[in-house]
Specification:
3 domains, five-stranded mixed beta sheet, 470 residues
Length: 470
């Protein structure tokens, strides 16, 4: 029994010793795993620290304002000023005040920023853009002349690089390049031709054809330059609609009654039913506004009071005229949707024919809408005869009209050397480009360009006369 008990104790001690040795081995393995994990974690922490350190120094470098040689203001401020005035159409004083507040917000130390300083930046940038060379290739010319009150007439020449243009969407400012611009009291065909030839020879451009309205000077200038002329579809639509309705007695009577009713109701209790105001210059092209108002009156006829119905009786009597105007409006909208974006090509012509056939099957067209379709078909045929071998013919110059509208929206209705800002409308304004413009263009060059390409504005003449009178 004693021997058996000793054997059991010895076995138990051996078992405990074995178990104790295994526990130390596991602890050692665990410590090894922990040390390796901590080393990996330390490595990750070092990598994170290095990454944050790099981000900190890169942010510090990025937040440091770039200096422009011979300028007291940082490049970022100059870029922002040009962007706000040229691209966002903010006034010069508005830009000046905004940048001053921005400087206070970010604790930038600079003197008071004059609005004339911003104007000089914009003129330099515009002249820089205008003086950029155009690459060799095939181009389409878009030209137009804007007449302002006074002695100034602005000539603007755009070109479209055919290789880079997408024939799916309408033209954007990024798609066009400015060829030249200038101001004179009057532009002759020879003056325009000289400008086109000079730029064409300087850059070695191949101008396939030109787009403009029916201006005889522009057409003759293109002919002198051996450039084939394509009529602008927007002006063609306006001329066709004018021809259809200008001498139409029913439409003229309707417009007369509308104008009389507007003057009578403008300050009355019926002001919500007042007819729209029509510009006397192009009232025949505003059938869109006329028919929408007339159809609104017809649709809401049951909700109109008896007193107003008596005055609006002429609307009920001219339902056929209103229908005719609506159909012309629908056809104009359809034509613009197809040809302003895609141009004149096989697919667009096919789409036009199919949609016209569908529209005629759905609507019983009056005489004037049918005449409109016939005249626009004749227009399309004429343009194809001018360029029979061309796969796609651009026929819209709305982009240049948009440019004129943006320029005139600056407030003062005069044309001065501010036209240089037009060169900055196209494409995006980058800080690298602004920096090159500020370094390469001097105000002396702007003054020289002004003397060669502009004339004395009406505002300058008024100031001169007042000074002489005083």
């Amino acid at each position: 029994m004693i021997l058996l008990s000793l054997n059991r104790q010895d076995t138990k001690m051996r078992t405990q010793t074995k178990h104790t040795k295994k526990s130390w081995k596991e602890k050692a393995m665990e410590r090894g795993d922990e040390v390796r994990r901590l080393k990996q974690e330390l490595k990750r922490q070092k990598n994170r620290a290095m990454k944050w350190r790099e981000n900190y120094y890169s942010f510090k470098r990025a937040s440091k304002l770039a200096k422009v040689e011979n300028y007291n203001y940082p490049l970022e401020l100059i870029w922002m000023g040009i962007l706000m005035h040229i691209n966002f159409n903010v006034s010069l004083r508005g830009v000046s005040q905004s940048l001053m507040k921005l400087g206070q917000l970010y604790k930038l130390k600079f003197e008071n920023l004059s609005h004339m300083t911003i104007r000089n930046w914009c003129l330099k940038f515009g002249l820089f853009r205008l003086s950029q060379e155009l690459s060799n290739g095939k181009y389409v010319l878009i030209s137009d002349e804007s007449v302002e009150i006074g002695r100034e007439r602005l000539l603007l020449l755009y070109v479209i690089p055919i290789e880079n243009y997408s024939p799916i969407v309408p033209l954007r400012m990024e798609d066009v390049k400015i060829l030249d611009l200038g101001v004179q009291t009057a532009w002759s065909a020879d003056d325009i031709a000289i400008k086109i030839k000079a730029k064409r020879e300087k850059y070695g451009l191949e101008i396939i054809y030109g787009i403009s309205d029916n201006c005889s000077k522009l057409k003759k200038a293109m002919k002198n330059c051996n450039i084939k002329w394509i009529a602008d579809c927007t002006h063609e639509i306006a001329n066709v609609s004018k021809g259809l309705y200008k001498k139409d007695e029913a439409s003229n009577r309707f417009i007369t009654k509308m104008n009389l009713l507007r003057r009578k109701w403008i300050l009355s209790k019926h002001f919500l039913l007042v007819p729209p105001e029509l510009r006397s210059k192009n009232r025949f092209n505003q059938m869109f506004v006329i028919h929408k108002w007339a159809e609104r009156m017809l649709n809401d006829w049951d909700d109109i009071g008896q007193e107003a119905k008596k005055e609006l009786g002429f609307v009920q009597q001219n339902k056929e005229l209103i229908k005719s105007m609506r159909q012309c409006y629908d056809l104009i909208d359809l034509f613009c949707l197809i040809f302003k974006g895609k141009g004149i090509q096989e697919n667009s012509l096919k789409e036009w024919d199919e949609k016209i056939a569908t529209y005629i099957s759905r609507e019983s067209l009056n005489a004037k809408p049918m005449q409109f379709v016939e005249k626009m078909n004749n227009y399309l045929v004429k343009q194809q005869l001018v360029l029979p071998q061309t796969m796609q013919i651009f026929c819209c110059s709305d982009i240049i009209e948009s440019t004129f509208g943006k320029y005139k929206n600056k407030g003062v209705k005069i044309i001065t050397d501010d036209i240089l800002k037009i060169a900055g409308y196209s494409s995006q304004t980058t800080m690298e480009e602004v920096e090159r413009a500020m370094q390469q263009i001097k105000m002396a060059q702007v003054e020289e360009w002004k003397k060669e390409n502009t004339t004395i504005s009406k505002l300058a003449l008024l100031k001169r006369n007042k000074k002489c009178a005083a």
